[in-house]
Amino acid sequence: MKKSILIIALAVAAAACNNGATKSTPEQTEETKIQETTPDLYGKEWNLVELNGKAITVDTTFPKKPHLIFEKDSSRAMGNGGCNGFSTHFELKENDGIELSHAAATQMACPNMDIEQQLFEILTKVKSYHIDGNSLTLYNESKEALARLEASAQ
Questions:
Q1: pTM across the whole model
Q2: How would you label 106-138 residue by residue, b for 16+ Cβ within 10 Å and e otherwise?
Q3: CB–CB of 39/124 below 8 Å?
Q4: Closest CA to 103 of 118, 82, 89
Q5: Nearest-CA neighbor of 152 among 18, 9, 46?
Q6: Is residue 61 exposed (0-12), middle (13-18) or buried (19+ Cβ within 10 Å)?
Q7: CA 67 to CA 91: how far, in whole Å?
Q8: Are 92 and 98 in contact (CB under 8 A)?
Q9: According to the model, what pLDDT value does residue 38 have?
């Protein structure tokens, strides 16, 4: 009798473990699908090369190159506008959609703030992106290119 109760208990426990491991919420499944289709977005430093269709020139007054880094696990994007460091949360959507929240940035003053200010402005307007090789283009709602960045290994 004790053996059959033990066998039944082990069978129930094994079944419970199996069922729990395969269950997932629809949100987790959708988020996982989107993240799996965007592996090229992560693990790179995306250096800013164009803003609103115009090439940018990084001169000696920039303490750092303007760039973005996307972190997969925390859904954070961070970087530098050329003077100030910043961080923002992002959410990936279907069909290469992306939304970035307002960035929190340090408040240092530098001689050349135009590019940084433009970068911070466009980040709030980004609605989609496209990766082509080592090039990342960010688009607004009307599919107009706002910024182009080029990848370098982190």
A1: 0.73
A2: eeeeeeebebbebbbebbeebbbbebeeeebeb
A3: no
A4: 89
A5: 46
A6: exposed
A7: 18
A8: yes
A9: 57
DSSP bridge partners of 48: 149
**What is the DSSP secondary-structure string of the chain?**
-HHHHHHHHHHHHHHHHHHHHH---HHHHHHHHHHHT-GGGBSEEEEEEEETTEE----TT-SS--EEEEETTTTEEEEE-SSSEEEEEEEEETTTEEEEPPPEE-----S--HHHHHHHHHHTT--EEEEETTEEEEE-TT--EEEEEEEEE-
- Give the pLDDT confidence of 16-60 residue by residue, as tens digits: 444 444 444 455 445 444 444 556 899 899 999 999 999 998 878
Distance CA 60, CA 21 (A): 54
Specify the CATH class of 37-153 in words: mainly beta
What's the CA gap between 145 and 6, in Å, rounded?
Answer: 65
- What pLDDT is stored for residue 103 in this prediction? 84
